[in-house]
Amino acid sequence: MFSETTAILVDGAFYRRRSYYLFGEKNPKQRANELVQYCQRHLKGTSEQEDNHLYRIFYYDCPPIGGNLYHPLLQKAIPMGKSPTYEWSTAFFGELANKRKVALRMGQIQERESGFRVKAKSMNKLCRGEIRVDQLTERDFEPDFIQKGVDMRIGLDIASLAYKRLVSQIILIAGDSDFIPAAKHARREGIDFILDPMWQSIRIELNEHIDGLHSCTAKNPDPKTEPLHAGYH
Q1: Residue 121 needs a FRET pair 20 to 30 A away by CA distance; which of 30, 133, 139, 157 works?
Q2: Coil, helix or strand for 155?
């Protein structure tokens, strides 16, 4: 007998950022395999307890922009559809779509509201007077995408899973507090609600809205002992 029926919800943009930090750079297929393997770690029971049953992995993200974005430093439109990021993301979503028990929930990127921004590190240097505006280079800028529909889909799926009692446990891999209203609803319905911030710091007050906090890797994974690390052999 399985001890719990578990749904795992993954904030895609958050996961890709944290997995790059924790496990290193990978190609789309490797990252997709890693994501499924990481989620499966949440299902492992103790020596006295059976593994949990996976209902489904829900992955939330936005398709990459294929149009042009204006670059304020270069003063020209950049064709994003030809960028390595576009190719990587498209291949990654394709790999996930072929995974068993993985459901993609795709929002949208508001192209008209997106553009390029100065990176936080470079902005801090500007504010401290370490560099001047005329010293900024192309490397100091990064795409700034405005997502729409991702948080809404996460909230709706949490509410639906809880209301229909399709699962007894929900694990959310995310790092912000937008999930709080949905988490409250799920807990009122008797759902065990676990947050996995992948070792990113969260506000202390968030603990009162969840049933547990658990990340399935070390805070600083050792490439020699962490199988999910890109440097593991």
Answers
A1: 30
A2: helix
CATH number at residue 182: 3.40.50.1010
Complete edge-to-edge strand list for the sheet that includes strand 192-196: 102-106, 53-61, 5-11, 169-173, 192-196, 212-213
The residues pairing with 224 across neighbouring beta strands, listed in sequence order, are none
Q: Which residues neighbour 76 within 8 Å (Cβ) at sequence distance 6 or greater?
A: 70
Alpha carbon distances (Å) from 220 to 5, 45, 159, 172: 30, 23, 34, 21
CA atoms of 148 and 28, how far apart (whole Å): 23
Least confident of 1-5, 173-177, 190-194: 1-5
Q: What is the pLDDT of residues 105-114, one digit of tens each?
A: 999 888 777 7
Range of the domain at 58: 5-110+145-213
* Confidence at residue 158, expressed as pLDDT on a 0 to 100 scale: 96
